[in-house]
């Protein structure tokens, strides 16, 4: 796999597309305590609906369908948000590692083999997430 240059925070585009904005809003929306309360209320409203539906199979199908659809959509949205957060964190770590590597390089020039090896190891680790599978 060819070496890719490290992406620093200053090189990142701050343009966020419509889907990313929507995913961020959805993530913020579902992470609130009142959303959890709304989910609990859904179950509380659903439970006595057996009196209206009279059929246990239909009664279970209703809650299973609702929760499956909501879960499926939320996983996609939250995964988008998580990936963007992970990428931003990695870019920040790369910037810190590169700056530290440059500082080590300056001091390693003075002759310390231990600092030279630390500098080489740090340079090898920057961008490592691009080479490892998760």
From TrEMBL:
Parts of the chain that traverse the membrane: 33-52, 58-78
Protein keywords: Membrane, Transmembrane, Transmembrane helix
Pfam families: Iron_permease
GO biological process: transmembrane transport
Species name: Raineyella fluvialis
Presence of keyword Transmembrane helix: yes
InterPro entries: Iron_permease_Fet4 (IPR007251)
The name this protein goes by in its record: Low affinity Fe/Cu permease
